[in-house]
Specification:
Mean pLDDT: 85
Shape: globular
Strand content: 15-25%
Radius of gyration: 26 Å
Number of strands: 16
Amino acid sequence: MSSSAGLRPSRLDRGLKRLSKAANHSLLWFVVAAILATRKGPYRRGAMRGLAAIAGASASANLVGKSLFPRRRPAADLLAMDRRLSKRPTSSSFPSGHSASAAAFATAVAMESPKAGAVVAPIAAAVAYSRVHTGVHWPTDVAAGAAVGVGAALITRRWWPLGVNEPASAYEHADLTSLQDGDGLVVVVNPHSGIGPDPTPQITEEWPKAQIVSVEELSDLPDAKALGVAGGDGTVATVAAIAAERDLPLVLVPSGTLNHFARDVGIMGLHDTAQAVADGVGVRVDMAKVNDQWFINTASLGGYPDMVRIREKLEKRWGKWPAAGIAMFRVLQRAKPLHMTIDGDKHLVWMLFVGNGPYRPKGFAPTMRPRLDDGLLDVRFVRADRKYSRTRFFFGALLGALEHSRMYKHFEVASLNVEVHGAPISIATDGEVREKANHFKFRSRAAALGIYRP
């Protein structure tokens, strides 16, 4: 601090004061996150992970660290008036909350996108230094805060694995039908499934011989060589089920609000699939069935669909991990336990999740799927037969310790039989609520769907 106080006045003084103020309450990082989120892929994931890391770093530094380690701020009269902040903080000096948030955000962004991290890191370093330059922190406060921030960013991987750029593994399949100019291709377009423009003009331009139809019209087209779909996961699931039943390859054009299946398959847009359609190359992937209903992503009983809906509504503001925690708390608070028999064993559960293929992480907020070729179902449920089971499960999820919790069960099987006792209940598949029933027979269907992929 003394060496910093001895620096001569310069033009940097005013800039560092403004930068330090801009980082109050992490407002600077919220603005940067909003800019990054305008671009898809690693930039948007970096923004979301950065906000989640800030939440952990801020709580650790400001609520825990400052309470445990009270320390006086540097004396204000050691600095020239031009370098002093107009409103000096009165909380403990150790550790620096600004430095913690800056390091957390920069580290988290770099974990997803090294390019974006290289731009954000100098800004974060300048924010951290500004706290010493303006005389509100000692250098050791800043160093400790930065360490807290880096740790908070790294620990997000426990709940939220790093985004994987490679598509999920799939069965090799190189003999799909080549469709020049879309000859023989029938495409279902849902223009209302996303936030962007109607993709029909681009599809027509790419495949001038393709037919654009509604879902209801698919049954009247017996000569189709392939089925295409442009929309979100709900629309994709409907068309994929028809394609699997008729053993036709699928042409996937993600254009909906939610495109989890397309992301896992490895298709980000029309350009990713156009060349594969022309060349007739692709893969086969697993699908799953519950009773007579096909699904491509997930099926669930209980409150899980509500949890996903609330999480996706909140994650733009809070980040995926904090939003998942809030959603889980809200759903568990009003959930009613279900009496069911799972593969012959009786259980009392709050909710049950079944995924088409193994999801990661292993906690109750799965975000990615590395395989679509192992013929297994990912089964997870929350027990309701223990005292304070909801509370214990909730804190186990927040601490990333569900693998060791007695409240949570996770296993992978090729088939599953579930009998719900009492009144029939609805099952949700790929975000859509289906008819009520008491018996649910889940089966993985290995290599059920051919899909064009470059």
